[in-house]
Amino acid sequence: MQTAVTPINSSSLVIPWDPFPGDVNQFFPVLHISEILDLSGTNQSRQFNVYLNGLRWLGHIMTPEYLYSDAVYSNVPFPSFPTYNVSLEALSNSTLPPILNAFELYTMMSNTSVPSDAGDDYLINWGYAFAEILCLVTFNAMTAIKERYRIQRNWMGDPCSPNAFVWDGLNCTYSFSNSPRVIALNLSSSGLTGEITKYVASLSALQYLDLSYNNLTGPIPDDLANLGSIKLLDLTGNQLNGSVPSNLLEMAQNGLLTLRLDGNPHLCDNGTSCNVVPTPKKKKLSTPVILILCIVPVLILFVVIAIVWRVRKTEGLTRGSSVDPQNGFPKQADNSLRLENRQFTYIELQNITNNFQKILGKGGFGSVFHGGLEDGTQIAVKMLSQSSSQGTKEFLAEAQHLTRVHHRNLVSLVGYCNEVNHLALVYEFMSQGTLQDHLRGRANNDRALSWRQRLHIAIDAAQGLEYLHKGCKPPLVHRDVKSGNILLSETLEAKIADFGLSKAFLSEVNSHISTVVVGTPGYLDPEYYNTFQLSEKSDVYSYGVVLLELITGLPPIVPGTENVLLAQWVLQRFSRGNIEDVVDPKLEREYDINCV
Q1: Catalytic residue among 158, 234, 437, 480
Q2: Predicted confidence band at 76 (pLDDT cuts at 50, 70, 90)?
Q3: Cα(254)–Cα(369) distance, rounded to whole angstroms?
């Protein structure tokens, strides 16, 4: 507001615009006006009127006050015109021309798939009325689900409309004649508690429902079997009990439904009733029998303890952290690998990778190979090198973390291999490699990423991090956020990878944890480096370095005589007042300087 424009050698300032083809022609302009010259004690004055297409818009004369932020706007949209002109016309007695500090133009978003508001008088067609009812049912159901589970996501407005702002975790279907319908709902690892709400069954078009890895209790509602379009129901990793509705079991047996129920220890999935058969009245036990029943288990417990103590003494306690010769995994209980994904054999991995022919990359853990599954799905196979001692721990950590994180901006685990001397993770293939490759690596010969593509990549990575910090229970800190760990799909959708160094906060109350500093030089948060206090802010700092990489195209440590950190390099040049000095020259000035 401290900068403005005024017309040169003219008493009027005109702002024209033409509607784009297909626009709904509903515009809301906002003119921000403030006097930035101190006219007190002078003979100068500034007075003007505001017009729209020659018609008086503002009912009074505009006399802007010195350093007071004022605005001209309308609460209703402009009427439809083939072209628009907003003009500021100085009065004849004004010594200064009009002034304009900022101009905003809002337009109503076109969304033809949504029927008119139910209150419109002309909504008489029953087809549209029925579509409106479905839309209202969908909205009410999603709102009830949000309130029932207190879901902490950016769920605001309509769940499906506009389609560019669909609620996180939802997929919707759109058609011209019908209201948008929710066809997929993913609430995996969302901290849900209590029973499965009946409102889920109100989403009659639902095809995919993922409620895995929460703390849901109670029985599976019979109403879920009434979802005629349901194709996938994932209830893995909850505390559900009772019997599975027979209709769901029948659909699964007929191949109409993929039903996942693992990790529910109190759930009966054999189609029979879980009710306990009434036990006949027991006879009163005599005192000797009671003594025997009490003493015998205690004696057995002592015998078992003695046997275990004897065996451990014989084998030696030092083997407690050694490698198990049966599977090549460390024996610590917290390092055990419990996965729900597909288990591959080493021979299968040889086949799907064509005997490990194509290497995608190498790291401290070993190599990553390209492969393809039976259905043509491309995958990446990360093999643990036998010479990697540190890699084993990181490998196991990555496997455990990947089984509980589910987000479109985090790389997905397909399966694993756990055989003697062969440990591997199989995850989705990201055909465009890493962000680092595109900024300055092996993809350097390709066309440089555009500014818009870089913005989308930044947003994708931020959403993945936000899920780790806020969506995971317990929260997860990545600890190695960098451009080399941001993978790109064929459409340049970004996903965060490599969770080998990730650390979970076992208590959500703690704002940080003390830990040994790990990570990649140039990305390390200075406070974390100096205090050994790890928090989600450490990831945010590393993400900031990635943003600077996207802007500059340079590595986190700028090569040269001093090898200065990228953040310092940017600050040195930014202090000169010319931000264009830090922008990647490969963008060839095709960017928005204000956005930078």
Answers
A1: 480
A2: confident
A3: 37
DSSP state of 243: E
User: How confident is the model over 362-392, as pLDDT tens digits?
Assistant: 776 778 999 998 888 899 998 887 665 555 6
Question: HSE on the CB side for 81, CA within 13 Å?
Answer: 15
Q: What is the pTM of this model?
A: 0.45
**Secondary structure element (H or E) that encloses residue 56, with its range:** strand 55-56
Enumerate domains of the chain plus CATH numbers: 12-107 (2.60.120), 126-268 (3.80.10.10), 333-428 (3.30.200.20), 435-587 (1.10.510.10)
Query: pLDDT grade, residue 44 (50/70/90)?
Result: very high
pLDDT of residue 118 exceeding 50, the answer is no
Catalytic site includes residue 446: no
CB 31 within 8 A of CB 73: yes
Asked if pLDDT for residue 337 goes beyond 60, the answer is: no
Residues near 160 by beta carbon (within 8 Å), at least 6 away in sequence:
138, 166, 167, 170, 172, 174, 180, 181, 182
In whole angstroms, what is the distance from residue 101 CA to residue 383 CA? Answer: 60
Instruction: Quote the CA–CA distance of 100 and 292 in Å, as a whole number.
Output: 96
State the pLDDT confidence band at 170, using cuts at 50, 70 and 90.
confident
Say how many C-beta atoms besides its own lie within 10 A of residue 510's C-beta. 12
Tokens (6 digits) for 495? 């996903």
